[in-house]
Amino acid sequence: MNHLEKHKRKIHPIESTNVFSKYLFLYTLKFFRKNLREEDLYEVPINYESKIIDEHLEKKWKPPQIREKKVSVVRLLLNCYGLNFFLLGLMKMITSAIMLIVQPYTTGKLISYFAIQTTLSQRDAYFYAALLIVLKLLNCIFLHNYYLLLAGLGIKVRTALCTLIYKKILKVDQLHFKNIGKVLTLITKDVNAFKIFIDYGNDVWIGMFQTKNRTGCIGWNGFLVDPNPFSNIHFCKNLDE
């Protein structure tokens, strides 16, 4: 239980700003106009509070027929955050595919204007230059929002795992509890490994499809022998125990 005095802080501006300001990060402009102090820290957004995350886990684990069984941590996390994680990766794959097709074509057209040719006018060159700038700008905005949402998802997963560990400790008989070092390892190392997987997990399966497109089935052999995607299974086993 937390016995520390809780300081009242200002509500995070992301909860009250409009969509345009939110996705363009306009609410952060005032941070660069002055030196940041302790009173400039905001309250944690509601969606990232441990209480809200714990209630969300309870809803996914609420059916009695599920509670009577030994629930897998991976399955529970997939039910809570798997769809959001996959949709973010799908959006990145589509955006990357569009950029890989349109950007080289636009750049090639712009460069060809300066070669000896008669098909492209100066107006066409301005058009392709403007299109290239817009593509770069849109891609920049998307990537910043993508990594922000991905970081937020990682925070939720990390908070959820720490909540499960904390509630598990409260139910363990203290007289027979001797694995303090194991708990510290779970919280400080293994939970952070899940956070790292959230950051780079989408790049793994997106890279598999891109490799397949470039090299064929032989390019998948490296992914089949790579043990890194399965390194977190040991953590889930420890948490289940």
Percent of residues in helices comes to 55-70%
Major sheet characteristics: none
Q: So what's the overall shape?
A: extended
Q: What is the element string, with H for helices and E for strands?
A: HHHHHHHH
Count of structural domains: 1
Low-confidence stretches: 227-237
Work out the radius of gyration. Answer: 24 Å
Coarse structural class:
mainly alpha
| Beta strand % | under 5%
Mean pLDDT level? 78
- Supply the number of helical segments: 8
Domain ABC transmembrane type-1: 93-210
Organism: Asbolus verrucosus (Desert ironclad beetle)
Protein name: ABC membrane domain containing protein
GO molecular function: ABC-type transporter activity; ATP binding
Describe this structure in words.
This protein starts with 18 loop residues before the first helix and ends with a helix. It has one domain. α4 runs antiparallel to α5, α4 packs parallel to α6 (180-215) and α5 (122-171) runs antiparallel to α6. It is an all-alpha fold and 241 residues long. It has helices at residues 19-24, 50-60, 64-67, 73-113, 122-171, 180-215, 221-225, 233-240. The protein is built from 8 helices and no strands.
Summarize the structure.
Helix content is 67%, strand content 0%. It is mainly alpha-helical.
Keywords:
241 residues, mainly alpha
What is the topological layout?
Elements: H1 19-24, H2 50-60, H3 64-67, H4 73-113, H5 122-171, H6 180-215, H7 221-225, H8 233-240
Helix pairs in contact: 2-5, 4-5, 4-6, 5-6
